[in-house]
Each structure stands twice: as structure tokens, then as C-alpha cells.
């Protein structure tokens, strides 16, 4: 079943909505094919993300003021927030991975927020993007665990506090849940972003009907506010889960 | 019916155009269009590396330095405040000491003044006593003189009276006998 | 005709899949409600557990997102 059928069916209903059209990857400078190097809207919005992060964290802290300006205090707040999270969740020895987690957090939070700008493209709504990040976290954590603890890392799945007969069963469950981690890690973020934007788009389509347009505009406003919250919370959750996985790699003993 | 066919035709043309445009509409969900995956992954990796470099080379050390500097400044300020507080306490102690000293001094001065006054008073009292005693002695002497004078007058009057009486009686007044008799009477 | 039946099944399935999101809503509400009732009993310990609460929310919410994803797949990708 393709878009054509869906669009046809919806057109017959009198409403035109293409909630998924906003996620289409398009080449920036025309052309038909999307090669791996083609500059697309993904490139554009990722570039904006980099620019926004640079503006906040580099240009904002240019003054190096003891008494910070507004932008600088936001940058320091972000730094302190992520730093404390890494320290609290992963422990003191997790602090040296702080730049990686800060990179992920800043990228996700800015990509999410920029995606809320009307007509923009949300890079984090794509499973390809989030899956790469989640797989990167998963592989890093797994390799780190084996490098630091060798075979002892497998104790993560052998819960010594459980009664002995239960341990093999728990080990199977633990292994499954370990390998499901990158899936849920990536789909959570992409799904949240996709869902929110698609819902906004659906309500936007309802706004074309004069009778219910005030209601739908109200709904768009409410969903937009919720999405702003979700954008931040999902970045937070992604970062904190990364910290939790990192803690498992650093201290596999329960 | 005709319109419906037309709309179908339009859609078909539209879909065809879209397919020709991006090739992305082959799947309903753009997220599952695997043709765009290499592109996204490539740009994502580029972006993440750039962000990582910016953060780890420039932003994070700078913010960490600023925070450390601020922490240092705050610590220094707290230490300075502690210092000043100590100084203030010292000053207060000194003030209290001075106050106590002044009080003691005042007490001493008061005591001295009191003693001096007492001494003066004693001296004045003694002097007055002596004067009074001297005056009393003088008066007593005067009284004694007066008394002696009176006794003498009494003697003379007695002698004269006795001589008169003797003369009146026709006798011859013997001065010596009269004197002896009066002296004997007065001795009584 | 056969395609129509498939399409109908897909749409019905998508609708059914969306009921899963209600379960996620219940789960998230449960997590936050219990956190709140615990936090009001012992407010001093609440601050340190906010992160745990968010992790719990994330896990239960992920399942709702999965059902949403299934619905989307049925609507657009089957």
C-alpha cells in the first residue's frame, strides 16, 4: 500500500492530510536521487543544530564572565545539568565520558527544539538517526564493559542476589532486555518526535474545516506546548539512559 | 463518478510526480525509506563529530574554567569574609577591653576622690574639734576667773559688812580678826 | 477487492494498536502518581529520585510508542 492509495482515500473524505510528508528527505538543490553525500534537508537542519549549539555554548560564553550574561548562564546551566546527571548516575569514574553524553544531549535537545519550528525538518524523528546514536551507545557500552572487566562483564546478566534456581531464567531475561535496549532507546526518541509532529499535522488538517477550526487551533497550541516539554524530556531520557548503560559497563556487579 | 475518476487521475499524476521528485514516496513512512538511510547516517556522523569537537575543544573547557574560576572567587570571598569577621571580633574584644579599663579607671578615680575627701573631712573635723576644745578651755578659764572674782567680791563685801557691823555695835574694828573670821566662815 | 480487505484489516489493526497507548498512559500515570505520593511522605528523599522517575516514565512510555509505531506501520507500510 503506497501513499497514493492513502491520499486518494483521504481526498475522498474531503480532508487532505499528509501527516508524514514533513518527514520526507529531500535534496536541497533539486535533483532526484539521494546519495549518501547529497546535501539534503537533513544536512540543512543538522547544520542549524550545530550553529545553535555553537551560538549557545561557544559564542554565549565568549565573555568568560564571573557574573554571567543570560546566554552564558543558560550554557552553564546546561553544562551543570548534564555534568550532575553523569556524576549522579554513572558515578565519579563516569565523568570522563561526560563530553560524549553532552554531545548527544545537546544534539538531541537542539534537533528536537528546532524541529518544533513550523516548516522545519526534525532530524531526530528519523529512525535512521536515532538508531545510529542508540547503536553507538550500545556498542560503546558493550565494548567498554568487556575492555574494563573482561569476561566479568557477563556477571551483569548473572544476578547473584537472586535464588540459584531462578538465576538462569533471570539471565535469559536480562540478556534479552540488554539486546532490546538499543531498539527501545532509538524508537522511543524517534517515535515521540514523529508522533508529536504527526499529531500536530493532523490537527492542522482539521483546522481547514471552518466548524472545528477554533478547537483544532486550540489543540495545536496545547500539543505544541506538550511537544516542547517532550522535546526536552526525551533528550533528558536519552542522556540519562546512556548514563545508566554506562554505569552498567563501569560497575557490572549488582 | 467522473470527478472521482478525475481525482484518481490527478492523484496518480501527483504520486508519479512525487515519485519522480524524490523517490522517497515509494514507502508510506519516510522513516522506512531505506534509500535515504546512508545519507542521513553520513550527515549525522558528520554533525556529531563536529559537535563533539566543538564541545570538547572549545566549549566545555571554557565553561569548566569559568565555573572553576567562579568557585575560586566565591571561596576567596568567603575566606575574606571570614577574615573580616575575625577582625571585627578582635576589634570588638579590644573595644570591650578598653571599656572595662575605662570603667576600672573610673572606679579607681572615684575611690581616690572618696578617700581624699574623707581625709579632708577628717582633718577638718579634727581641727574643728581642737578649736572647740580650745574654746571650751578658754571659757572654763574665764568662768573660773569670774568665779574667783566673785568669791573675792563676796569676801570684800563680807569684810566691809563685818567691820560696819562691829563699828555699829560700838566696838573697835580689828581688821585682822575680821579677816580671819571671814576666811574661816568662807572655808566653811 | 482483495486489496480493499487488506486495507480494511490494516486500518482496523491500526486502530486496535492505538489502544496500547492507553495502557502506556495508565502506566505513566501510575509511575508519576506513586512517585508523588512517596515524595509527599518523604519530601527530603524525593529530589534524588526524580531521575529514577523519569527512567520509569521512559520505559513505560516506550511501550506506548511501540504500539503507536505498529499503528503507523499498519497504516503506511503494510
Automatic annotation (TrEMBL), chain C:
<dbReference type="InterPro" id="IPR038662">
    <property type="entry name" value="ATP_synth_F0_csu_sf"/>
</dbReference>
<dbReference type="InterPro" id="IPR000454">
    <property type="entry name" value="ATP_synth_F0_csu"/>
</dbReference>
<keyword id="KW-0472">Membrane</keyword>
<dbReference type="InterPro" id="IPR002379">
    <property type="entry name" value="ATPase_proteolipid_c-like_dom"/>
</dbReference>
<keyword id="KW-0406">Ion transport</keyword>
<comment type="function">
    <text>Key component of the F(0) channel; it plays a direct role in translocation across the membrane. A homomeric c-ring of between 10-14 subunits forms the central stalk rotor element with the F(1) delta and epsilon subunits.</text>
</comment>
<dbReference type="GO" id="GO:0033177">
    <property type="term" value="C:proton-transporting two-sector ATPase complex, proton-transporting domain"/>
</dbReference>
<dbReference type="Pfam" id="PF00137">
    <property type="entry name" value="ATP-synt_C"/>
</dbReference>
<keyword id="KW-1003">Cell membrane</keyword>
<dbReference type="GO" id="GO:0005886">
    <property type="term" value="C:plasma membrane"/>
</dbReference>
<protein>
    <recommendedName>
        <fullName>ATP synthase subunit c</fullName>
    </recommendedName>
</protein>
<keyword id="KW-1133">Transmembrane helix</keyword>
<feature type="transmembrane region" description="Helical">
    <location>
        <begin position="12"/>
        <end position="33"/>
    </location>
</feature>
<dbReference type="InterPro" id="IPR005953">
    <property type="entry name" value="ATP_synth_csu_bac/chlpt"/>
</dbReference>
<comment type="similarity">
    <text>Belongs to the ATPase C chain family.</text>
</comment>
<feature type="domain" description="V-ATPase proteolipid subunit C-like">
    <location>
        <begin position="12"/>
        <end position="74"/>
    </location>
</feature>
<keyword id="KW-0138">CF(0)</keyword>
<keyword id="KW-0812">Transmembrane</keyword>
<keyword id="KW-0446">Lipid-binding</keyword>
<feature type="site" description="Reversibly protonated during proton transport">
    <location>
        <position position="61"/>
    </location>
</feature>
<dbReference type="GO" id="GO:0045259">
    <property type="term" value="C:proton-transporting ATP synthase complex"/>
</dbReference>
<keyword id="KW-0813">Transport</keyword>
<comment type="function">
    <text>F(1)F(0) ATP synthase produces ATP from ADP in the presence of a proton or sodium gradient. F-type ATPases consist of two structural domains, F(1) containing the extramembraneous catalytic core and F(0) containing the membrane proton channel, linked together by a central stalk and a peripheral stalk. During catalysis, ATP synthesis in the catalytic domain of F(1) is coupled via a rotary mechanism of the central stalk subunits to proton translocation.</text>
</comment>
<feature type="transmembrane region" description="Helical">
    <location>
        <begin position="53"/>
        <end position="77"/>
    </location>
</feature>
<dbReference type="GO" id="GO:0046933">
    <property type="term" value="F:proton-transporting ATP synthase activity, rotational mechanism"/>
</dbReference>
<keyword id="KW-0066">ATP synthesis</keyword>
<dbReference type="InterPro" id="IPR035921">
    <property type="entry name" value="F/V-ATP_Csub_sf"/>
</dbReference>
<keyword id="KW-0375">Hydrogen ion transport</keyword>
<dbReference type="GO" id="GO:0008289">
    <property type="term" value="F:lipid binding"/>
</dbReference>
